[in-house]
Automatic annotation (TrEMBL):
SUPFAM superfamilies: N-terminal domain of MutM-like DNA repair proteins, S13-like H2TH domain. This is MUTM homolog, MUTM homolog-1, FORMAMIDOPYRIMIDINE-DNA GLYCOSYLASE 2. It comes from Hibiscus trionum. GO terms for molecular function: class I DNA-(apurinic or apyrimidinic site) endonuclease activity; damaged DNA binding; oxidized purine nucleobase lesion DNA N-glycosylase activity; zinc ion binding. Residues 281-406 are annotated as: Disordered. Keywords: DNA damage, DNA repair, DNA-binding, Glycosidase, Hydrolase, Lyase, Multifunctional enzyme. Residues 290-300, 328-349 have a biased composition (Basic residues).
Amino acid sequence: MPELPEVEAARRAVEENCLGKKIKRAIIANDSKVIEGVSSSEFESAVVGKTIVSAHRKGKNLWLELDSPPFPTFQFGMAGAIYIKGVAVTKYKRSAVKDNDEWPSKYSKFFVELDDGLELSFTDKRRFARVRLLKDPTSVPPISELGPDALFEPMTVDEFTESLGKKKIAIKALLLDQSYISGIGNWIADEVLYQARIHPLQASSSLSKENCATLHKCIKEVIETSVEVGADSSQFPSNWIFHSREKKPGKAFVDGKKIDFINAGGRTSAYVPELQKLSGASASKAAGKPGKHASKRKGGKAKDNDDEDEEGAADEPTSEEEETTKVTKSRKGGNPKGRGKKPPVKRKTKESDDDDGGKGDASSEEDDEDPEEKAGKVKTRTSNRQVKKSEQTASSQNGKKPKRAK
């Protein structure tokens, strides 16, 4: 998902190309899942004729300040991206649409043409982004709930050390919490912990002053370096774990050392066991539990948890897929052999994802089904089985053989 560097690259592109220009025309997608709280026609009427004064960012959120409110506000979600026609803007790899797609793209949610002919579009292939029209974006969620921005409002070393000392949560989970520090996502958290030689599951409060100072320095360096190159990952330093974090387990190495994948903070986390070791109570706690390794994709690739749902209480909503998983886990007992089984579902290929008519690869009918309805279906099936079992037991006690179901 786009993190601070990608969203900052988009902000700078808008700042360099669009300020002082009037919005001549607007096309807002008729998509109430992404366009939140306002109709597309109302949105268009509110921005046409307005001049773009500045572009702001906090964490992974961007908003355009116009010469009068309300202001278009963008929460990038898992695959949001800004496009400016004729201008190169770095995008998260899974956000990019094909160069030969129509313009504006079928995935466009917000499109404006400026008075000099320049055109800007916000696209979202997976429909986890949110586009809002707000009078004061900083006064309402999600922006009002964010912690200090990792680039613009960094804590001092002393503030950072003191705050970590009060947190018992694992350090990876804490870094992903947008209410603690905003802008750090999965790949940045993995990178700074690798550079600082800190295990993702190490309790935050157990870090030494030296650990805290090193981590503070690494957060600053990783974010500033990635922002300086416009979030272009091909220009990231060669000794970053970033370049190998999506390789197959057993084939992922950085500086000759093996990368392993575990679940930390609810996310697949890449780390180097040889360099990032648990210590103290965290090590003792881990020794008493079986290790939880990250799930693997078909073909053995480590699952890239950047494609899982958003981090932190102040970030995007939990996905329907996660809710479905919870419901499935709540079932007790297995189905009788051959009963209740569903035929295997064919997964769409990457190509078909790109040609799904704008629905995105996270918007299947199954994903859009209400989790509570799914839970109800599970409960109903379970209840029916229990009733049949009770009837069969009663028949047996009366000395009769249970009737075979027709």
